[in-house]
Amino acid sequence: MNKLILEDYNLEMTLLGGQAFNWDFEDECFYGFTQSRIIKLMPVETCRGKSLLQWQTYPENDDIDFLKSYLRLDVNYKNILNKIQKDRYVKTAVKKYPNLRLVKQDFEETLLSFIISTNNNIKSIRKYIRLLSQKFGKSINVNGDKYYLFPRTEVIAEAKLEDLLSCSLGFRAKYLKGTAKYLLENKLTKKIHKLSEENTRIELKKIKGVGDKITDCVMVFSLGFDNITPLDVWGKRVLTDFYKVNKKMKYKDMRRWIENYFEGYAGWAGQFLFEYIRHQ
DNA sequence: TCTCAGGGGCGAT
DNA sequence: ATCGCCCCTGAG
Hints:
Layout: E1 2-7, H1 11-16, E2 23-26, E3 29-33, E4 38-47, E5 50-58, H2 64-71, H3 77-84, H4 88-96, H5 107-116, H6 122-136, E6 139-142, E7 145-148, H7 153-158, H8 161-165, H9 172-185, H10 188-192, H11 197-205, H12 212-221, H13 233-242, H14 251-262, H15 266-278
Antiparallel strand pairs: 1-5, 2-3, 3-4, 4-5, 6-7
The chain binds a DNA duplex through α6, α9, α12 and α13.
């Protein structure tokens, strides 16, 4: 296995929190599945904020470029922490959930995953995505054990609606299939990475089943817009309970408020505040 | 057994 | 701009 030293990086909170639904912790290892690879991360030693990690990717091995990009090892984390700690709420959250990070996920997987998140809780979302992967994803052999990849977009696009429904997706099934088709027909993945913030939002909201909240999730969790944070029920609670923002305020205005307040880092701040208020 | 809410969004009004 | 509804599940 390959080795990597991680500094100030809480894998558990980062990978098993609400930003990604495709990681599991078993036998002291983190296993992740994407559309093209299984990732195994094994923390072996921790000392003063640094931890030694053994890792491997499957079926193609040694994909360090993927890992670096996914974990965002290039960010200046200390600088981000300095920027976001503007009040006692963030300061408390940073203390309670040290070394929480944002990762950068694949665009299509993120979009498809958050379609499933609609009016659902994290536990259910994780469950449905696994059902979907077992039914539609390719299986990969990792040291004799079987792991399933996240379904390819083409497979979801061509899946029978009844087969999607058998994964307990309910009314989300038609949005999932429709989104997969839309991605392919419009070659959206190629285009989306070149757009401005405003145009990215416009393009994403054209998709049936994608509104303000899912748009924001995709933009911060996969497209690198660090100043966006999803205002779901918890995000709204952060604003109304902590910052005394008017409950009646529109989504757009709430978003403007928090983006303005955190000056470029609302995405990072939002992750901390989300964990904080969700566990209160 | 029942109610309720869950990292929402659509379509009708 | 508001509101009922969507499909399902786990918690209480």
